[in-house]
Write a structure and sequence with these properties.
CATH topology: Aminopeptidase
Number of strands: 10
Structural class: alpha+beta
Helix content: 25-40%
CATH class: Alpha Beta
Radius of gyration: 18 Å
Number of domains: 1
Strand order of the largest sheet: 3-10-4-9-8-7-6-5
Largest sheet: 8 strands, mixed
Distance between the termini: 28 Å
């Protein structure tokens, strides 16, 4: 990266976790058991790796996760993680298949945006002030950005869409990425989608719905992904409403994140 460019965002504890996550990903990136969205390394499902492995990953990085836990496994996974001294958060798993896209919404070349707002994709050439504005808006919404190189599509098969004002302020964003390495059917077909963030002054204008919808279509057309998932903590009605408008539906499965609170005060990576 060029001098002066920032790869990791957040508070010092979060940045330290992200750095360890990237270092571990560089070692484990050919391991098809590993799940990574651009923050830390986790495990795809309990069938891909034991709680002992999750514990080691969490203590090495400060945090880890299971990307998909079946409903009948959730209580055992949560209890087992806590027995290892880890803080836990479980998110409802929301999903959508490409066959369920509302293509009028997901592929609208001229979306209904507020006057002056343009939509673009973060790239390695994105100006530094725009990158910083993106990170500031995300953090203000309680969303911890992934590695910069993930958001710009360098580290993973990923894309980040941003809504930008004429003066370069990023007021909304959405991110999607591959999360499994290798050539398995799941790695080729399913991706993570989410990290929706809209500046408080710009909420209520439908920006998250526009960006989220366009990003689903882009990831489908560009990389061939057909299944998309995200996690919402139960009770987060604002995120539930946005996902419902886009077409995602809640499933009985969960996403479980774990953290070593001695390395990550508060016991969680993001909201």
């Amino acid at each position: 990266m060029a001098a002066g460019e920032i790869e990791y965002f957040g508070n010092p504890s979060q940045i330290a976790v992200l750095k360890r996550g990237r270092a571990l990903f560089d070692i484990l990136e050919s391991d098809e058991r590993i799940s990574c969205h651009g923050r830390v390394c986790g495990v795809v499902t309990p069938k891909h790796g034991s709680l002992a492995l999750i514990g080691r990953l969490a203590h090495l990085q400060g945090a880890s996760h299971y990307a998909n836990v079946a409903s009948d496994e959730i209580e055992a996974v949560l209890a087992g993680a806590r027995a290892l001294g880890l803080d836990t958060v479980d998110y409802a798993r929301w999903e959508i298949h490409a066959d369920q896209f509302d293509h009028d919404r997901h592929s609208n070349a001229d979306p209904n945006l507020p006057d002056g707002i343009t939509v673009t994709c973060l790239t390695p050439e994105t100006p530094e002030p725009v990158i910083r504005s993106f990170a500031e808006t995300s953090l203000a919404c309680g969303v911890l950005p992934a590695w910069r190189s993930a958001h710009t599509g360098q580290a993973l098969r990923s894309r980040t869409l941003i809504a930008v004002t004429p003066d370069g302020q990023v007021v909304s964003s959405a991110y999607a990425t591959s999360y499994i390495v290798g050539t398995s059917e799941l790695a080729s077909s399913e991706c993570f989608w989410g990290m929706l963030a809209t500046h408080p002054d710009w909420r209520g204008k439908g920006l998250s719905v526009v960006l989220g919808s366009l990003l689903l279509e882009q990831m489908h057309k560009e990389f061939g992904f057909t299944r998309f998932y995200t996690g919402i903590e139960p009770g987060n009605t604002a995120s539930e409403a946005v996902c419902s408008k886009i077409g995602l539906t809640i499933t009985s499965n969960r996403i479980v994140t774990v953290a070593d609170a001695s390395q990550l005060p508060g016991g969680r990576m993001t909201k």
